[in-house]
Structures are given as C-alpha cells and as structure tokens.
Design brief:
240 residues, alpha/beta, Rossmann fold, 2 domains, six-stranded mixed β-sheet, 26% strand, globular
Length: 240
C-alpha cells in the first residue's frame, strides 16, 4: 500500500462568495515529486496556501502523516513538517543571505539544529555560501529563488511545497532549478510542485494532477500526462 504522506480530501475553498476550489482530493506519496499543473486561476496556489494554513477551507480535510492539519496556524503547519516557498519568493530583501537562512529555522524543532541546517543549505546551494554576507535583494533572480528554497529547508520539512519556482528565470537557470528540485528529492525531501513550465514539471514528477477551474480534471504519472493528447494540446504545444 502506498504511503500517503499528504492527503487532501474533498477540499472546498471560497473567497467570500467566489468559490476557488470544488471538492479537491489528491495525495502525495512519501519520497515523491508530485506536480499540480493547469492554467492561471485554476486554483493551484490556493490549494498550496490552504495546505499551509494560510486559508481556511469551507469543507474537507488536510491529512499529514495521518493527522488532521485543518484549522492549524501556518507556523504550526511548518512545525508539523510542511514548508511553502511562495510565488514571488518573499525574501527579507534588506537582510543578508545568512540572516534570511537563520530566520528559516525560527520554529521550535529546528532551532537546536540550525547550525547543521545552515551547513546543509550551503552544501546544497554552494553559491549561497559565497553570498552569505550579501544583501538578499541584490542577488540575481535565480539566486533569490535558491535562497527562498534554502530558507524553507532550514525548517527541516518532510514536504516542501514550491509555488512557481521557475517564474521569471532564464531558460538556463530554469534548467538548473529543476536539477536542484530533483537533487532535493534524492536527498529525501518529498515535493509538491506548482509550475507553469508544464513539460519540465511533468518530466520530473512521479505523479501529477491537472487542475481546471478549481477542480482536478486529470491525473496520472508524469510520463502518461506528457503523452496525453489533451494535455499536449492544452499546455505543451508541439513537442520536439
């Protein structure tokens, strides 16, 4: 039986009178990369924010390692082992790289091992060690994204949720970013990925879900969805 580290059951979310998610159910197996793909406004970021405790659902459950997360504060969700790297990175731009990383270990269970976590972050992202004393806002776009991911890793998550990690990056840096995502996964981090670069996301994913207007429209392995004519026509264009 598959080990469902994260399970979403019948999740319904609304912003006032506007419904954003309609009975969404999905699961993420431990040790996997799972992608959520779809057009802008499909509800992907809303789903991540709901899992992270930033939005309260009208209905449904979020289960992590078999325990209900629904109703927990965002900091408690991080403490439980789920960390979100939001779209736009949200760095403390006037603080140094090292100060941003240290703030990532603010939760109780991460504080005692913050020095080890810092060294691990530098091992995973050597450029950040070189830039440790540099102001975060002066980094390149790719370096800022690496810092945002490394800062989330400081909380020692079991699941890392990435919201549009390749947004605004050059094609060469996008390639590096996906290599880093695979490297993190090989290091034992389960990843839930929201990404507009559908082909790259499906390529690295064990399983993926296609969202459309707040619902799951399709699911399958990354390979299955890449080969699906409907997915190709809607999101991939002509593949060489």
């Amino acid at each position: 039986m598959a080990n469902h580290l994260l399970e979403i059951r019948d999740l319904t979310v609304a912003y006032g009178a506007v419904q954003a998610l309609w009975g969404v159910s999905l699961h993420v197996e431990e040790g996997s990369i799972v992608s959520l793909v779809g057009a802008n406004g499909a509800g992907k970021s809303t789903l991540l924010k709901t899992i992270a405790g930033m939005i309260r659902p009208k209905k449904g459950e979020v289960l992590f390692a078999g325990k209900k997360l629904s109703g927990l504060r965002p900091e408690d969700v991080v403490d439980a082992g789920i960390s979100l790297v939001p779209e736009g990175r949200r760095l403390f731009s006037r603080l140094t790289v090292k100060e941003n990383l240290e703030l990532g270990a603010y939760i109780h269970r991460a504080r005692s091992s913050s020095k080890d976590s810092l060294e691990r972050a530098y091992d995973l992202f050597p450029i950040l060690k070189k830039r440790s004393g540099q102001i975060a806002g002066s980094l390149s776009g790719g370096e800022q994204q690496m810092l945002a991911i490394a800062r989330s890793m400081m909380s020692k998550p079991s699941i890392l949720m990435l919201d549009e990690p390749s947004l605004g990056l050059s094609p060469l840096v996008v390639k590096v970013m996906f290599e880093l995502i695979e490297s993190l996964n090989r290091a034992g981090v389960t990843i839930l990925l929201v990404e507009q670069n559908v082909y790259q996301a499906l390529k690295v994913s064990r399983h993926a879900y296609v969202m459309k207007t707040g619902q799951i429209a399709m699911e399958g392995s990354g390979e299955e969805l890449i080969a699906d004519p409907d997915v190709q026509n809607a999101y991939l264009g002509t593949l060489e």
